[in-house]
Amino acid sequence: MPVTNFTHPDPYKYQTGFDSYHETEAIEGALPVGQNSPQKAPYGLYAEKLSGTAFTAPRHENKQTWVYRIIPAAAHENFVAEDADSYHTRMTTETHKLHHIPNQLRWNPFDLDEKVDWVHGLHLIAGSGDPTQKQGLGILMYAAGKDMGKEAFYSADGDFLIVPQHGVLDIQTELGRIILRPNEICVIPRGVRYRVTLPDGPVRGYICELYQGHYQLPELGPIGSNCLANARDFQAPVAAFDDEEESEYKLYSKFNNTLFSARQNHTPFDIVAWHGNYYPFKYDLGRFNVIGSISFDHPDPSIFTVLTAPSDHVGTAVADFVIFPPRWLVAEGTFRPPWYHRNTMSEFMGLISGDYDAKVGGGFKPAGASLHNVMSAHGPDSGAFEGASNAELKPQKVGDGSMAFMFESAHMVGVSEWGLKTCQKVQPEYNEHSWKPLKRHFVNPNKKA
Question: What is the helix (H) or strand (E) element at residue 384, kind and residue range?
Answer without folding.
Answer: helix 382-390
